[in-house]
Structure formats: structure tokens, C-alpha cells
Amino acid sequence: MLIRPSLPDDMAQVTAIYHHAVVHGSASFEIDPPDANEMIRRRDALVGAGFPYLVADEGGLICGYAYIGPYRPRAAYRFAVEDSIYIHPDHHGRGIGTLLLGALIREAETMGFRQMIGVIGDSRSHGSMALHRKHGFSQIGIAQSVGFKHGRWLDQVLMQRRLGDGDTSLPDETPKD
């Protein structure tokens, strides 16, 4: 399994993975899956801003993808990022999420970020919460019943992990504004 930066040619497979997650899952609170052009636009915006957008490639088959982006848009949040990870449904349980999240954490630390937030759509997403706990995240809160999808109310679980020195030292002013 090769974890590498995504390429434009990967986006058809990435779009299919996300389409399945939107239609069948609760990790995303989107109701209608975006088309390939919108997924390309989203990727290009993150990559253009210098954020990593990674894929798990097994001989040309994209088994999952992950990226980080700004946690919130205001300047004071510039040292915090939010992670997103999606795995092809046929490849759950193979450790792909672990590989992707580990790579994101390493890249975020190298970039000088100090906090990573996992925003997990649905308090029943035990696998996603376990993945984040495995990588040192702690649950910091639950926003109850903030989403409605698939005929039921969905919670949003917030998890957080310190990156590098976290808040124990002043930051270098290089991360994204």
C-alpha cells in the first residue's frame, strides 16, 4: 500500500469513494454527493493552499483518501487543522485509515501546525473514533443531534490531538493564515 499525494487522475476514484460515503454513511453530513468537477475543485483549493491531500494506492486502485484543511477560517485558528479520511467500503478494516492518518499527522507537524481536530459525523462511528484514539486524539465534545440524515438525528463528535509542541511553546508564524 503506497500512501502518496493525490493526483488529478485519482479524482474519479476519490469521487466514487466519497459518493458512497455520502449516500450510505453518516461520516459526511452532505445529503447529495458532489460531482467529479466539484471534488476536483475542492482538492485543488486545498492543494493550492499547501495542504496535503493523500491517497492510499494499491497498484493503481485508490483504497482511501485523506486530507487536512483549516479547522476554521479566522486567523486565530491558523495553527489548527481538521482531518478528513474516507476509505473505500471494500477495504475497511485493513489498516488504511491508520496509514493515512499517521501520514497526515506527520505532514501537519512538519508544516508547523499545533492542533488537529477530528470532526466525526455520528456518535455511532466507533471505528473512526477508535482510529483517532489510536493516534492520540481525545474526545473533547459531542454536539448532539445537529444533523439529520437517513431518517435519524446525528451527533457530531469532536476529537483533538496535540501536534508537535502543541500549546507548550509559542508558534513559528509560518502556517497558513
Describe, in plain words, how this protein is organized in 3D.
With 177 residues, the protein is α+β, with helices and mostly antiparallel strands. The chain has a single domain (2-162), classed as 3-Layer(aba) Sandwich (Aminopeptidase), CATH 3.40.630. It is built from four helices and seven strands. Strands 1-2-3-4-5-7-6 form a seven-stranded mixed β-sheet. Helix 3 links the parallel strand 4 and strand 5. The mean pLDDT is 95.
Secondary structure layout plus pairing:
Elements: E1 2-5, H1 11-24, H2 36-48, E2 53-58, E3 61-70, E4 80-87, H3 96-110, E5 115-121, H4 126-134, E6 138-149, E7 152-162
Parallel strand pairs: 4-5
Antiparallel strand pairs: 1-2, 2-3, 3-4, 5-7, 6-7
Brief write-up:
This protein is of the alpha+beta class and 177 residues long.
What is the rounded distance between the termini?
33 Å
Number of strands: 7
Secondary-structure element pattern, one letter each? EHHEEEHEHEE
Per DSSP, the total helix count is 4
Could you tell me the radius of gyration in angstroms?
16 Å
Features:
single chain; 177 residues; alpha+beta; Aminopeptidase; seven-stranded mixed β-sheet; 7 strands; 33% strand
